[in-house]
Fold each of these.
Amino acid sequence: MKKLKTMICILVLSIGLVGNTFAGDSVNAGITGIFNNIVTTIMSVVGGSDDCPVRDCSNCKPGDNNTGNCRPTDK
Amino acid sequence: MKYKISRKTISNKVGYQLIGIFWLLFLSGFDLPVLSQESEYLAVPESYKTEGIPTIKNSEIEGLFYDPASIRSNLIWDADRKNRRMLVTDVTNHVYLLDSPMATPTKLIEKIVPNSVKVSPNGDSFVYTSDQEDQDNYQLYQYNFKENASKKLVTLTGKDESINTFVWSKNGDSLFFVRVDYESKTTRLCRFNFSIENCYPEQLKGVWDIIQAGETKILLKYWKASSSQLVYAYDLSKNKLIPIDEKGNSRKSFMTEDSVFWTSEGNERCKQEPCVLSFNFKTSTTNLIKLPSEIVNLYDIKVSPNGKNLLLQETKDGIDKLRVFRIKNQAIAREIQSFVKGSYVVWNTRWLSDKEVIYTIENIGKPASIQSFDIKTKKLTDWTKESLPPRLENKVKSPELIRWKSFDQKEITGYIVRPNSEVKKTPVLIFVHGGPQILDRPVFNSQDIRLASNLNLAVIHTNIRGSSGFGKEFIDADNKENRGDAVKDMQALLNWIETQPNLDANQIYLRGESYGGFVVLATALQEPKRLKGVIAEYPLISIRGYLGQSWIDEFAKNEYGDPKDEALMTKLDKLSPLNNTKDWNKIPLFMTRGKLDARIPEKDVIDLKNQLQKNDTEMWFIYSTENGHGFGGNYVFASMYQFLKKQVKKEK
């Protein structure tokens, strides 16, 4: 009985002490979810230019990880 | 986007053991202690492969990010004149509907970022171009307001085809657009009436844009070179191309029922430059439009729908001024009072009606917001109001315009953003824009603010030769064999920094994106001692490699040169660190590359990375398997921040 209590105690302590690490995986989605939505907002450069065709000098492709560095072109 | 936990946060072995214990306890009904919910490290996106980038502790980048809801910045996609409303962006560049002034914008399109958005004249839908299916190959999509859904309109047929631009017909019953075939280097003008597509017989050589559709004519632009944008009209009934201006550089143009108006630089009819010319189809005569004498830096020109008012946008030193004039007897008459008060960068002006103008304003400390001005009632209306996270407030000084003389005495300009808490000698980060035919203007820039406030860096934005906004001669000054002169502009800037008492010439870092990446790499090759770190985001590495791609058109060759000109290619090869790593003085390099980047050859990027790694250069490299040209985001910014922080610390 004493052995069983000790084992349970060790198990509980193990969970408690390594909780942060263990929880890291399961709640990481939550953490990254926040980062996923945080936008880094606007950089200085216009995404497109009225002085070149779209394939030659636009670089407005924020993708999923939006940087928001685009300004709509006037085209 | 999916993320994975950083490898160092948990050892797999320990993790599996703990999962087992967890389940054992869970099944036996134990009450578990409350576990901490925080990961110690910043997650690396699953689609990223990184090299040389240390694990980033969240505590190290604490001051870098903020709640997305705390920032508001809106710009105009397009106006819906029929319903007096507009389509707007936010910081994510998605499409939102803004129904009325200060209403909450409704998100219509997410996950994709259109290149161009245009509302139908009857206000029931909008059409946009997107390359979501294939990078740089744009297709047409229509969003119907009633159905709240998008559908693709026409399909691409060529091997490397793109619908770069489109316009609505006057009554909204059809679309006119250009199919650019990058394989044959030709453009076709087409019309789609929402059931059948018809392309006109004339095959246009090179890359063309469509500007406007009239009843019988279409206004077109031929992209010969950035300093040679030529205006043509296409007569729909005669299937005939009418040259309007084949001499001057025509950046902006519009058409009324019987005439074309355009800005021109280099046309012999211009008495001052740029000027505005008109061409009458009936009389086939070209006239010079007399502009108010004080207008010298004309950036844009837009006529109201009824043709009675003209909106002019002037740009000087990056700051814009909007002016509206009455038009009488085909001439510019009296001016209506000016309405934009303060120093702002203005984007995407539109006529919301015959008497109402909409526009966005922003500057370095103010995110973009949208206003309208009623020229009859003189009423100014806010459509959106910007907001800024408290941690970004009052962190930087107002940007200062800077000028320096290059090796040939050409004046080069830029602007500097200094941290509010400036020390005796402030380290400097120099930013070089892509393009190169782009003008870097002092817009709201949260990255500058965060770098300045967290690392105490001064950020210099450059408009070296080749940038737009300074005339034909300047935009052409870096062409072909003169590419190295743009690098010399950068070296001259380093000289200028050395003369500045508050800037630390021993701590200069470079950052460039796309073409700007090429410039910063080339500058570092020429400056083995004066630079302490380089950031090249999705950079162009080798002009030879770039010009070797099948899609390269006349426009690109006019900018960079003929790839068959071996003497020129050899000269340009010497600018790039690729195959010249013996001259690279181990300056630490941060570089990114997107697998889907169809603009720049991947081989060049990987080769350079490998060569510099062999050279024992400190290399921080991010490769994204899901992104293309122009990618960024929080992980990239956090890594870049760590890179700069490390280099700055090293030099202290």
Amino acid sequence: MTPRTPGYLASALRVFDMSTGEMLWSRRTIFMGLIVGAPVIIALVVRLVFALGAPSPTVNGTVMAGPAIFGLMIWIFYLRFIVPVLGVFYGTSLIADEVEDKTITYLFTRPIPRGAVLLGKYLAYLACTVFVVLPSVIIVYLCITPVRGSLGGSFVDLLKDLVLLGIGLAAYGAVFAWIGAKFKRPLLIGLIFIFGWEQVAMTFPGYMRQFTVAYYLQALVPHAMPNDGVVSFVQSLFHQTASLPTSLIALAVIIVAFLALAAATVERREYVLEQ
Amino acid sequence: MSPIHDQSYRHYGGTKAAPGHAWAVIATAGLRTFLRRRAFLGIMLFALFPFIVRAVQLYIAANVAQASIIAAGPQTFRQFLEQQDFFVFVITVYVGAGLIANDRRANALQIYLSKPLMRTEYIFGKLAVLVVFLLSVTLVPAILLLLLKIVFDGSFAFLRANLFLIPAIVVASLLQVLLASFTMLALSSLSKSARFVGILYVGITFFTSAIYGALYAITGTSRVSWVSIGANLTQVVDVIFRQPPRYATPWQVSLLVIIGLVAVSLSILERRVRGVEVVT
Amino acid sequence: MDAPVISADHVSKWYGQVLGLNDVTVNVPPGITGLLGPNGAGKSTFMKLITGQLRPSQGTIRVLGEPIWANPGLFFRVGFCPEQDSFYERMTGLEWVRALVGLNGLDEKAADEAARRALETLELTEHADRKIGAYSKGLRQRVKMAQAIAHDPQLLILDEPLSGMDPSLRRKTIRLIREWARTGKSVLVSSHILHEIESMTSNILLINNGRILAEGDVHQIRDLIDEHPHTVYVRANDPRRLAREFLENDDVLSMSFEPGAVVVQTGKPDAFYARLTNMAASGEFGAIEEVTSPDDNLQAVFQYLVK
């Protein structure tokens, strides 16, 4: 009589244990570190420049204080670039990396559901990215906010930013986990999604924007949207966001639905290894 | 002579090419590999679409009096090359990501370099694959557009008035192509996974733009455009075409950044393209 | 008759236009079975089907009486050692085997013990704490086998297990496989190396061009290959005298001579051996020193069937 397989979550956690170390100490993480390090360096440079007595920058006649600069960096760096790109970078590679390295065989010939393998690797991705991205946000906050601002005054915004970025990593990761499981060229599709579809859909008024992750994430941002280019300017003209409860529910649904789809795809798909 | 002919191995008795031509073998093999792929041919055809649109524009401007408003000038060729940036990016990722990475993955570098083939020839051969495809969507159609302009106008007047266009197109295309090629080749030599290399290249391209975007939003000045690879190229090419530069950064700084990037890429290639990898 | 450990019923598998396996029906009995075939024969496809990595395009596959596709629970009782040389290179041998056997639901302590036991069986204890990336080819092959046996499975499926091993390690591994079979495990071994399969088992599964050519005992198969007469080598004091006697019977199809011996091609080996025994017992034809059959082996079966 065949013994029962370990529970889904228990299996996923075992895979999580196995994958976290591999993911965290891989070369990919160096790249991630460089990406999240850049805003930290910029924040340090800006702080140093102000400490040396430089005047605060003005944009359109308005003096930019620390909290405003921090909000800007959250939008431009984290929300528009780091979070979606890490989602593409890691999410599309969850299973693809194992297939390319031909180590998938070891995971798929164990008494655990294939979907649990995907879930475990997704959790490892989430842990690694959150572990790297959120501290960088905190460092940027500590460097930038005291310039014409106060740490305590913007602390609640920081917490909101940390939660929103965590949710963003989870949501984009889930979407791209499914894209990675389903399609042959997931990277290209992922990039078209974030730099093509989401940009276009957010520019035009109407229902199209509801088919993006950015629409719901942007509802959680406590900072004003910056005006740093033509696309941003047009998007700001038609800027509308969902309500907070709607956004949270939608993001939760996106995470659960796409993870379930990804798991189902992995269960059914045959992976033919390159000879 | 014996009626039973010798069936054993026969040594090659033909002429051999002089040393230094092995790069052409690598380049030819690489070109053939991609030209066999339908998806790639589709991308290349799609990349020529702007050329077709421009050609139609030139024809209409030359033959329809009311359409003089869309007449071509030097900026037309500048804009064409800028439009082709997208295809340069896509082709660079598609072709370039696996050029050296796949060889590293298959441990083929050792095989290559065990032949009478210098590392420079290997790199040059791989570079040639990417450069040929990229030039065929930049330099070649741009020069063809110039020729079409002359043909449709029925005179060399435009060319005589804008003689600088020929060297401008050549230099700008080469700059665009060589920057992309060297950067991608260097990244490809860093990994055994073509997919990872593609991600790296995309990341670096968009990331430097994002940094510039943030700095521009913070400082309100475009003097910081030198951090963006794309902005540097745009700046220098604008100057080559005698167009007003878009950014406040001096074009010499942008050119230095580009040269620096190529130099760093060459240095990476020199270190990574070796027959033996020492693991300690 | 024991139930088969693996049974395939009219299984076909194609990859687009390419046919990997063509209407294969086979039952693998308990014990050691060698899966043989040239490159591109369909061995890897068959291995992937019986380990649930691929789903048959047609037909059914059952392993230990249960369907294998989408049935991960079977892997409690099945251990698989794949052909590819791929690992999590940053992990040590012990970490890797422990992590994989931990996926079988064992707690940390039990997984550690199981991993250590497996590594000890394969003489890897002294290398257990080194990173796999620093292992030699032979060590890598052994650690791959360690992860396959760590959970003490009932059925072991080994794809080219001897690849990359030096001769002494091959001998040890073959001995290990025979020991596992003696403890009641079933083993399916895929290999190109005919004489090593022969030293493990006489039960073979021969595959070529996606079809099963033969299954069962290699000697029985050999007997059934009529179009290739059996070769019998007889070394004797007076081989020519023996040869004159052999010529009297029509089951001897041809003969040739070697120093001190006569090599006979016969279409009826049983009759020939019976007569040869009588001739030796009678003493009339001189001493008969050696009788062997050079082609009653796997090599011959392989050559004759795989054209």
